Amino acid sequence: MDKTDYKKIYKELYMPGRSPALVNVPPIPFIMIDGQGNPNDADGEYAQAVSLLYALSYAIKMNKTGDSVPEGYFEYVVPPLEGLWDFRGTKETFPQDKSDFIWTSMIRQPDFVTPPVFSRACRTVRSKKGLDTSKARLCTWEEGLCVQCMHLGPYDDEPATLQKISGFLNSNGLLPDISGKRRHHELYLSDPRKTAPEKMKTVLRLPVRKASGQSGSL
């Protein structure tokens, strides 16, 4: 039986083109971990969060035998890592000091992952891997109206793609809609350990709203 692969089923969310486009993102269940600091620190908070997210996600995926199989379980591919980003300081320029980043690291979960299923995965990860799961949470997050674009290349070159998104907003009567809950969003489709920097694929997504006086659809 084929495994459910969210990247293939929801191509409009995971495989956009290299030109910005509008998308309405539905409610999606995630395991999320909040933190701050430089994501490139080898032993930093971000690296620890990513390790915990994958440990929990694979504990759920492998929980398919015995008496604890979740109701409605199906075979699936663990979805890609995603992240919400903000930073301390003024918002006019892209931060030069990556220690200023404030982030939420997250991985999508199948709909059968209920709070009891998540709690069981936390217990498994604590007992088998000795990891502290207290910062992880399961929640359903509705992102809503966004503009997104595929970025091809290293993460440090993202400002060029963000400039394309900004131009799309200006041409279509849209404004960024950044708030405590709606933030710059990245979906990581490439493994930086195995992919040349120039070939890395990252979906860049920005929450938006229509400017005052704008109506209709794009």
From TrEMBL:
InterPro entries hit by this protein: GyrI-like (IPR029442), GyrI-like_CCH_Lin2189-like (IPR008319), Reg_factor_effector_dom_sf (IPR011256)
Coiled coil: none
Gene3D superfamilies: Regulatory factor, effector binding domain
Domain GyrI-like small molecule binding as annotated: residue spans: 20-209
Entries under Pfam families matching the protein: GyrI-like (PF06445)
UniProt xrefs under SUPFAM superfamilies: Probable bacterial effector-binding domain
Protein name: GyrI-like domain-containing protein
